[in-house]
């Protein structure tokens, strides 16, 4: 799991699959405003034409200045934002498409709080849901982390 301390080291590093295939470079990271947890990395590779693809960081690792992703190249290349015009921040609707694409659950569906997060189980889940109620296509719960921040 990626820690907050590793965020600045990730921006600009190379991203690889867990099979050792290079995917591209990390443009920036999206962090959850509510939990502070790194959620998504935007990957580009000008050589292959891969641009603006978001990958989840939930099961990723940072090893030897490399972001290691547990997803294959073809899955990453087919991510919805490769076809969509995602800006620097994902809307809730775009994020839902990505959760579905990568086969992971939305953190707002999880009731258990992370250990040491200081949130009660139901309080955290309720707060996350309240923060996006009725704003699914216009708002985001994410903020970008860029070099030097």
Structure overview:
With 149 residues, this protein is an alpha+beta fold. The protein has 5 helices and 7 strands; from the N terminus they run αββββββααααβ. Strands 1, 2, 3, 4, 5, 6 and 7 form a 7-stranded mixed beta sheet that branches. It is globular. The model is unreliable at 115-138 (pLDDT under 50).
SSE blueprint:
Layout: H1 7-10, E1 14-17, E2 22-32, E3 38-45, E4 50-56, E5 61-63, E6 66-69, H2 73-77, H3 80-83, H4 92-102, H5 121-132, E7 142-145
Parallel strand pairs: 1-6
Antiparallel strand pairs: 1-2, 2-3, 2-7, 3-4, 5-6
Round the mean pLDDT to the nearest integer and report it.
74
Percent of residues in helices? 10-25%
Q: What is the tally of helical segments?
A: 5
Which class do the helix and strand fractions yield? alpha+beta
Distance between the termini: 20 Å
Gyration radius, in Å:
15 Å
Order of helices and strands: HEEEEEEHHHHE
Strand content: 25-35%
Shape designation: globular
As residue ranges, the low-confidence spans are 115-138
**Main β sheet profile:** 7 strands, mixed
Tell me how many strands there are: 7
Key traits:
single chain; alpha+beta; 5 helices; 149 residues; 7 strands
């Amino acid at each position: 799991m990626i820690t907050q301390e590793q965020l600045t080291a990730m921006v600009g590093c190379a991203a690889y699959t867990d099979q050792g295939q290079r995917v591209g470079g990390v443009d920036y990271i999206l962090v959850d405003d509510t939990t502070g947890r790194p959620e998504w990395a935007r990957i580009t590779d000008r050589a292959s034409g891969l641009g603006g693809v978001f990958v989840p960081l939930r099961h990723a690792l940072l090893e030897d200045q490399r972001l290691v992703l547990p997803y294959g190249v073809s899955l990453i290349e087919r991510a919805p934002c490769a076809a969509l015009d995602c800006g620097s921040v994902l809307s809730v609707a775009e994020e839902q498409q990505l959760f579905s694409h990568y086969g992971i659950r939305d953190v707002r569906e999880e009731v258990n709080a992370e250990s040491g997060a200081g949130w009660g189980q139901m309080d955290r889940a309720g707060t996350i849901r309240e923060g996006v109620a009725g704003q699914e296509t216009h708002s985001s719960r994410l903020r970008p982390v860029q070099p030097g921040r």
